[in-house]
Amino acid sequence: xxxxxxxxxxxxxxxxxxxxxxxxxxxxxxxxxxxxHLTLRFIGEIAxxxxxxLDAALSMISEEAVxxxxxxxxxxxxxxxxxCLIAMAEKTPSLLHLQKKVERAMIKCGMEPETRKFCPxxxxxxxxxxxxxxLHDYAKKHHFPKGLSYTAHKFVLYSSYLSNTGSVYSxxxxxxxxxxxxxxxxxxxxxxxxxxxxxxxxxxxxxxxA
Length: 210
Prior knowledge:
Elements: E1 2-9, H1 12-19, E2 29-30, E3 37-46, H2 48-59, E4 66-78, E5 81-89, H3 93-108, E6 121-131, H4 132-141, E7 148-152, E8 154-163, E9 166-176, H5 183-196, E10 197-199, E11 205-207
Antiparallel strand pairs: 1-3, 1-8, 2-6, 4-5, 4-7, 5-6, 8-9, 10-11
C-alpha cells in the first residue's frame, strides 16, 4: 500500500521566509521547511495498481502555470481551539482550476469525491487543541511577510510515511504545468474566491470554517 497526496511544491526562497516564522508558540510542533507544500488533494492509502491508474489520469491534466499568493496566518480547529497554524493562500482562478482538474482525476480513478471545501494553505505547525487567543498573540508578534508569491510550474504526486522523527514526504512523480486555461471558468473561479473568504477582526483573510 502507498500513502499518497497531490500538492504544489514551494521554491526555496519561499520556504526560507516561512521557516523564519517558527518559534514563539508554546506547544507547537513546527513542520520542517523541506516538508512545506500546498495540498491539492489528499489521497490516503491505495494499492500500487491504483497508483498507476492515478498517475495515468494526472498525466492527462493540461494546465498553465499556477499563481500562488500566500497572504497571512490562519488556523484550523473548532470551538475556540486551534490544532494547526497555517499560511493561507488565495484562491486564485488558476489554482482553483487546477484543483478541480485534480479532483476530477481522482473520481475518474474510482475514488470518492472530496466532501471538504478546498482551503489552500501551507501547514506551519501542529499542536494539541490550543486556545485561539494564543495564535492571535503569535500573529501580532510575527508579521507575515508581504508579497509572498510565486508561480508554480509543476504539481507533484507525493508519498508519505512515518519515521521515528515524524512524517517524511517524498516526491514520486512531477507533472508540468504548461497547458491552457478556460476563460469562462476563470470568471467563475474569481466569483467563488470572492465568496469563500471573510475577514477577521485584524483584517486578515481567514477561511470560513477555520
